[in-house]
Amino acid sequence: MVDAPCTIRSADPMTCYVKTNWILILILWAAGLLAAAQFGKISLALAEVSVVYAQTQTMLSLAVSVMGVIGVIFGAVVGILVARQGARRAVLFALGLGALMSLLQSALPPLPIFFVSRLIEGVSHLVLVVAIPTLMIQISAPRHYSIVMGLWGMFFGVGFAATAYVLPGIYGVGGVPAIFAVHAAGMATLALVLWPLLPRAAREDIPLNWIALHLSLYGNPRVIAPAFGFFWHTLMFVALLTFLPDLISDMPWVATALPLIALCGTFSVGFLTRYIRPDQIAVISFVGTAVLMGISGGSLWIILPAFFVIGLLPGASFASIPYYNHTQTDVARANGAMAQLGNLGTSTGTPIYALVIADFGFPGLTVLTTVLCVAGILCLVIIRKKIVRMGE
């Protein structure tokens, strides 16, 4: 198959890759797994960290949520900073910063310093989730954009699963300090590996004004389209993973099966986009989720395939970034918007579902999910019309 012309451009014309650099793609994806572990190393060892600091798990859970707050506030800003400084510099900086914060945490500093380190680590995480997919698109052939973004869409789920797998062994060897030390070593190692491999790019002179930036960002339908679909998904996904297993089954494997099935849906998007536009796949995901959850009646055997359909959405959202945006700057801005709205959805969705379930149980969960799916469909349809009017 002959590749399509290079579409992602910058002020300093980047190399048009006629072959995808799969080795570098996989190394960057591994860096994404370590970015996911920035959340997982605390949330999956919350009980152990709480014992070390003699605090309740509720108190220490703030060390998880504080990283999401960084994404909500600065997601769009980081998108521009990555475009200004270049994704290579951003990734190396973020890996180094993350390694330093994990190393500090391995010393078990006083609790206030620990929380400050998590706040700073939130900056590292945010830069990574904006810069890595920007780089992955840059080093991919155009025909592989959707497959590469489908792979990237799996990073958080796979990263969490991998962290859950290795964490008990690490804890058994050296306790909580070893968890942080191994994470620091992993990030530092990848920074050294990537240093000579990542393509260099000139800095771009892009003005940085927080208010003007958000006004221009959210006024550009091409840049914001992927993020708005992703937002309604994140409002649902973590909450459904949190509450559904206990509501529909007493079998422990269900909690593991649901995210794995969703990951299969996410990865399949890379192949589906050869025949269907990414935004159409996103609409299909919302429609299928609403229908299957609505008719499930709590049946496990309907909810399992529903999670494959739910998993289509993140893959479609990431694939929409290079589909709609054709410059490095806009790709970085779109990734920043994804991080911003994704963190907003993840932070607010679970408490909203908790309130609804407390009063209305499983029927309330299905109604709320349907409402969010309808809102997602309306957003995507409206934004698509604006893009068409602009001239696709």
TrEMBL record:
It comes from the Bacteria. Keywords: Membrane, Transmembrane, Transmembrane helix. The chain crosses the membrane at residues 21-39, 59-83, 90-108, 114-135, 147-167, 179-198, 223-245, 251-272, 284-313, 360-383. The keyword Transmembrane applies. The keyword Transcription regulation does not apply. This is MFS transporter. The lineage of its organism: Bacteria, Pseudomonadati, Pseudomonadota, Alphaproteobacteria, Rhodobacterales. It comes from Parasulfitobacter algicola. InterPro entries: MFS, MFS_dom, MFS_trans_sf. Residues 24-388 form the Major facilitator superfamily (MFS) profile domain. Pfam families: MFS_1 (PF07690).
